[in-house]
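=== RUN LOG ===
request id: a7f3
mode: sequence -> structure
chains: 1
length: 268
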Amino acid sequence: MRNYCLDQKMNRKQIQRKKSTADNSGVEAHKFDNTDNMYLIAAGIMHDLNNILTTISGYAELLQHDLTQSSGSREKAEKIVNAVKKAKLLVNKTYSLSGPDEIIKIPTNLYDILTETVDLFRSTIPAWISLKIESPDKTINVLAEPIHIFRIFFNLTINAIQSLKEKGGTLHIRTDITDQKTAEQITGKYMPEMKYAVVVFKDTGIGIDAESLGRIADPFFTTKEPGKGAGLGMSIVNGLLQEIKGELIVTSIAQKGSEFTIILPVLL
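=== RESULT ===
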């Protein structure tokens, strides 16, 4: 079993890359970094948009199948509308690339966004995959931009589902509140004294081998077949968590499953 705190890992690699580039290319290195970062941001947004559009397509097919029946169609249509709204929010993000991207953080309920995210998948996943949510406290709030929390949950959910498609299994998502000491035990690092939200995505899928686990936060790294993934999901998740002072810890055993644990400061 291997355990990685992605926030620490990314910081070390970014520092090393920037130093190496600056040493080798001087002033031109700074220009390249800016262009490269802009491309990664745009590519990340388009990656998420593509995933959402895939969901829309799935519901559209279900709706077409049910056109001769009146029952249930309204609920499916409502889900399509909700998915389209999420897509529009992400598209709006692309416009902000031409100028500063202002992040508006507001009190955000984790359970509400989690259930909304999971509901997008329930009618489209195969019958041999089970989705379960366990939330003893449904009132956990964090200070964040809601669409960012949605993107984090969306990417972790779709990654888990993809790992379960071969043999089936369960994705169990649990939310809870913990204290500073427990947060430090989970992350393996010092955490300021406060309450923390814990969100765990645990699947019984194919897992991640040790070598790949150390690289999952690298942009464009993927273990999927060509055309089935851009390798941006975990990089996006890691970047969004850094914006809200969150941590992501990943534990996995090849062929047995993975566990992705998010730690976020609670808004009291």
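=== NOTES ===
The chain has a mean pLDDT of 78.
The first helix runs from residue 6 to 25.
=== END ===
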